[in-house]
Amino acid sequence: MNQENRRPIIIAIVCAVIAIAVLVFGVSCGGGNNAAAKDWQGFFSGAGKGGRITVADLAVNGGSCSASAAQLVVAGSCTFGIKEFGGLFNFGPPTKRARLRPLQPVTVSLLVEGTKTQQDATVGDSVDLTFGTSGGQFTVVCRTVGNCVIQLLDAGG
Fold first, then answer.
1. Are 81 and 31 in the same domain?
2. 41 lies in the same domain as 74
3. What's the pLDDT score for residue 141?
4. Residue 33 domain boundaries
5. pLDDT at 4
6. How many folded domains does the chain comprise?
7. Contact 58, 64 (CB under 8 A)
8. Tally of CB atoms within 10 A around 10
9. What distance in Å separates the CA atoms of residue 111 and residue 33, rounded to the nearest whole number?
10. pLDDT tens-digit series, residues 47-80
């Protein structure tokens, strides 16, 4: 058996040892105590939550618009790009999320991973944005004459 044939077997054995260690650790530390389980569940519950889209993540790709910490001002239409994130080893959040809440009627087109979706929103509606580490873009088109203002909110709010 040469070196190339051993590598997958060694990796499988290491993964099995880690899985057994996690199982033994979980069983020995849990002890049937539901209060302890809440601590572990709380620790892992936020792991996949994702980060928040901020103005620093936005790049104006087309149109006449401006962005501040809490709102986007669009004159007619504007395309915003979401920069790639995650870094070299991708230790950051798996996604970044935000919620757009328009103060005038708008149409939001979203392009993520080559898939395009579109949603009309009026005052009181909200549009959820979720981007993976490769980024993407969204376009806001005002359905009224003049500028439209869109609040940039946290995904949960």
1. no
2. no
3. 94
4. 3-45
5. 59
6. 2
7. no
8. 10
9. 46
10. 556 788 888 888 888 878 888 888 899 999 999 9
